[in-house]
Amino acid sequence: MKSSNTYKIFIYTALTCEAKAVIEHYKLKKDLSVHAFAVYLNNDICLTVTGLGKSAMAAGVAYTQARYGTNEPVTLVNIGIAGHQHHALGKLFLIDKITDIDSQKSYYPSSIAAAHYPRASLQTVPKPQYEYHASELCDMEASAFYETAVRFTTSELILCMKVISDNQYSSADAINAKQVSSLIAAQLSTIEELLIKTCALAVIITSHESQLFNRLVQDYHFTAQQRQQLKSQLKRWDVITDQQPLLFDDTQLVTAKDVLLYLDSCINKVNFNL
Questions:
Q1: Is the confidence at residue 262, as pLDDT, over 80?
Q2: Considering 165, 185, 205, which residue would you say is the last residue of a domain?
């Protein structure tokens, strides 16, 4: 049954110990009507504990968004632990590149609203690692989280936050639930700051009514799917350019497909220069 409430933030963790501090901080209550996953709620936040691994994470995100999500852009967040060769235990990173080791696909969360926080690249692997990459963090769910999350919101509203839980001096075998909860709890102030900034960006995205959208759908024949693409691209343009005007040369754009391709090229040029 679809939820009647409108949640602004969706948080996903693989483990209960990763969620514990967040649940307590935001006073989330378990939704006892749900049995597929452990889901915790307040008026604004929906948190799901998905279980370990990519399949569980993908299923948890898809299930939760289908049951509790809306058609408006919302903030989707993965909070969890990760290993690294030498970073200190407890240090928090915002992930700006995720590489799936199995598929060799890479994903790039934009996180424009959180520009001044420590960032890192991350590899998602199928099992715990005991030999650490020299530069990249390591986890078991992030690629599946992002690949699924981007179907439900814009990339700028997707956050992947990882707290270092193990390194070459303290291996993954030494991790315990109490330690993980403490590591996450120590970063709650930063986590809250990031959520506030990203939610503020979500308000901008949802509240800015594009006159250009209305003009374009009058001038060109867009299918229903193309209209959704157009709306998404225009919102993204507003976000990455702070709502700068977008100029169209109608003589060069004959079809709706031409418009979408032109918009895509404009966005890519801006992204390249960010």
A1: yes
A2: 205
